[in-house]
């Protein structure tokens, strides 16, 4: 069980880092969301994986750790889920505003003009992306 959970956390971290390194806003938001899921699973796994045992003390059952699971990681993960959902909503609103203002969803606000990436390499390759030919750098 622990190996499957550790592998799942590793896959989530790998996918989130891949998405965070992309230059598009939606990919970065998705990467942050996957990274928060991986962090939640890591916190949850810190409380011992004990299936079928309650986190709350019941009458008639001895009060030792053999009969219960730790409720603190569950409470922390629940709080992290709520905070992560709120932060994802705020990030989506900011990304939508940035898209409306810049007319692009690139993180730096610059997008290659059509045909700019199609020209052959070598020789005069022209200005950096986002700066039209004939203009100086700011």
Question: What does this molecule look like?
Answer:
This protein is mainly α. 52% of the residues lie in helices and 0% in strands. It has helices at 2-20, 25-45, 71-102. Helix 1 runs antiparallel to helix 2 (25-45) and helix 2 (25-45) runs antiparallel to helix 3.
Entry keywords:
138 residues; mainly alpha; 3 helices
Q: Mean pLDDT, as a whole number?
A: 81
The number of E-state strands comes to 0
Helical percentage: 40-55%
Radius of gyration: 24 Å
Element order, helices and strands? HHH
How do you describe this structure in short?
The protein is mainly alpha-helical and 138 residues long. 52% of the residues lie in helices and 0% in strands. It is built from three helices and no strands.
Topology of helices and strands:
Blueprint: H1 2-20, H2 25-45, H3 71-102
